[in-house]
Amino acid sequence: MEFQNSALIIVDVQKAFDNEKWGKRNNVNAEENISRILKKWRKMKWPVIFIQHKSDNPNSLFHPMNKGFAIKDIVRPLSGEVFITKKVNSCFIGTNLENYLRDHEIGTVVITGLTTPHCVSTTTRMSGNLGFKTYLISDATAAFGLKDQNGKYYDPETIHHVSLATLHEEFATILTTDQLINKLEE
């Protein structure tokens, strides 16, 4: 089975990303898709790993004293599920994620979460580089619009798709939620 010894990683699905400061976002149903995958994963009794970004800056939306730090209710962890806090973009840097995966003989990871060009892509790259078979679920992650160094704006859909293109077949296999669920049911 392709997903035997696999874990679902849910990256930074936090209330901070609901703040209007981020601007327009693509994949408004990303959290619902993550929830669908999470329900399937829990039904299979496979490991789920929740990642939460924590800032030391009290003005950050991701600071523990701010409501944005909280995980969104739609994907709230259950008792006994793995919960890791990180301070940088990669879920592997400064955490026990790699050790957890290796200690539990997990060779395949499925990555979902927020946002595609930041913590999700950084984690996906590192996962692939560390030798894990990595799947990134394209409609279970999302991006916001960004400006480049010259002030040119790129819409969220463009940012999202370019981010996925830089990862596909080099660091990860890109699937949709439906494609993943169909593979799990094979």
UniProtKB/TrEMBL annotation:
This is Cysteine hydrolase family protein. Belongs to the isochorismatase family. Signal peptide: none annotated. Pfam families: Isochorismatase (PF00857). InterPro entries: Isochorismatase-like_dom (IPR000868), Isochorismatase-like_hydrls (IPR050272), Isochorismatase-like_sf (IPR036380). Residues 6-179 form the Isochorismatase-like domain. Keywords: Hydrolase. The lineage of its organism: Bacteria, Bacillati, Bacillota, Bacilli, Bacillales. The keyword Chloroplast does not apply.
